[in-house]
Amino acid sequence: MSTPLPWSRRRPHIPAPGTTPPRRPMDWAKVGRTAVRRRATGMTAAEAAAALENAELEQHLNRDREDLADDERGPAEVAEWRRIAQLLGSADGIYDPAADAVVQDELAADRRTEAAEQQQLQEQRQAAARADKLEQLAAAGRLDRTVQSRPGDEAARDVLVQRGDYHATAVDGWLAQALADRSGHYADPTAREAAGTRLPETVTARAELLAALAATGAVGRDSKLPFVGRIASADPDAAAGLARWLTQTHAPGPADVDGGPA
User: Fold this and answer.
1) How many Å apart are CA 157 and CA 133, to the nearest integer?
2) What is the CB neighbour count within 10 angstroms for residue 33?
3) Domain extents for the chain?
4) Over the stretch 101-118, which tens digit does the pLDDT of each residue have?
5) Which of 10, 38, 170, 191 has its CA 20 to 30 A from that of 61?
6) Backbone angles phi, psi at 85, to 5 degrees
7) What is the distance between the alpha carbons of residues 172 and 143, in angstroms, rounded to a whole number?
8) Which is nearest to 127 in space by CA: 151, 145, 148?
9) From CA 240, how far away is CA 244, in angstroms rounded?
10) How far apart are CA 126 and CA 153, in angstroms?
11) Which residues, at least 6 apart from 152, have a Cβ–Cβ distance to it below 8 Å?
12) At what angle do helices 201-216 and 226-234 cross, to 10 degrees?
C-alpha cells in the first residue's frame, strides 16, 4: 500500500485576478464583415453588386424570423457588401482587401488593441510575481528598509489585498516607510506623486507622519514606531494633520536661516 503524501500546511498559491486573458465576447458583426471581405476578394464591380443584391434579398426573407431578431451578422454583411460595391463602382479593377483603406485601418486598430492587452497581461503577471516575493519576505520577517521599493509595488500590494493575504498589512508598513525615506523607487518625485494616487490614505498618511517625526530629530532612523501605523489606520486625516503640525513646528525660522540675529 502506498504511503500518502504528507499534508502541506503552506497556503495554496492563488493567482492574481486578471493574470489570465479574459475571453472576449464574439463580435458577430466583425465576423460578418470578415466573411464578406474574404468572399469579395477578386470580385469585379458587377459581381459585388450581384452579391449585394443576394444579401439584401436574404435579409428581407429573414426579417420575420424570431431566432434572428438579435442577429448582428446579417445586417453587417449587407452593409459591408454595400460598401464594397460602392468602392468598386468608383474605381476600375477587382476588390483587394490589402488596398482597402477601411480594412487596413481596422487591422491596425486590432494590432494596437492586442498589443495593449498583452502589455496589460504582462504587467499583471509581474505584479503577481512581485506580490509573491513581498509575501515571502513578510512571512520571514525580512521586509524592512534593506528591501528597495520598485516600480509596480503598488500593483503588487493590490494583488495581495485582492487575495485577502494578511501580509498586506506588513507590506503597507513597508511602503509607508519607503515613501517616508524616499528610498528606492520613491527617490523619484514623480513616483511619489503617483503613489499618492494609487495607495490608500492609511498608507500615505502613515508615510507623512513617519517623515515628519524623523525630521524632528526626536526619533532615530531605525526606531520602531508601531503607534504611527495605528494612528494612520484609525484616522488618516488626524495622522496627516499631526504630520503637518510637526513639520510647521520644527520648520527653521528666519533666525535659523539667516544664522541668528545681527
Assistant:
1) 11
2) 22
3) 28-99, 115-251
4) 999 999 999 999 999 999
5) 38
6) -60, -40
7) 11
8) 151
9) 6
10) 10
11) 123, 126, 127, 130
12) 140
Query: How far is Cα 210 from Cα 225, in angstroms, rounded to an integer?
Result: 8
Whole-number Å distance between alpha carbons of 175 and 196: 11
Could you give the C-alpha distances from 25 to 22, 103, 209, 236, in angstroms and in order? Answer: 9, 21, 48, 42
The four Cα atoms 145, 215, 197, 189 give a dihedral, to 10 degrees, of -80
| pTM as predicted | 0.68
Element (H, E) at 173: helix 168-181
Residue 5 reports pLDDT greater than 70: no
Q: What is the DSSP string of 43-95?
A: --HHHHHHHHHHHHHHHHHTTT-GGGTT-SHHHHHHHHHHHHHHHHHTSSS--
DSSP code at position 109: H
3-state secondary structure 111-165: HHHHHHHHHHHHHHHHHHHHHHHHHHHHHCCCCCCCCCCCCCHHHHHHHHHHHCC
Hey, what's the cell of 66?
424570431
Average pLDDT of the chain is: 83
Three-state DSSP class for residue 15: coil
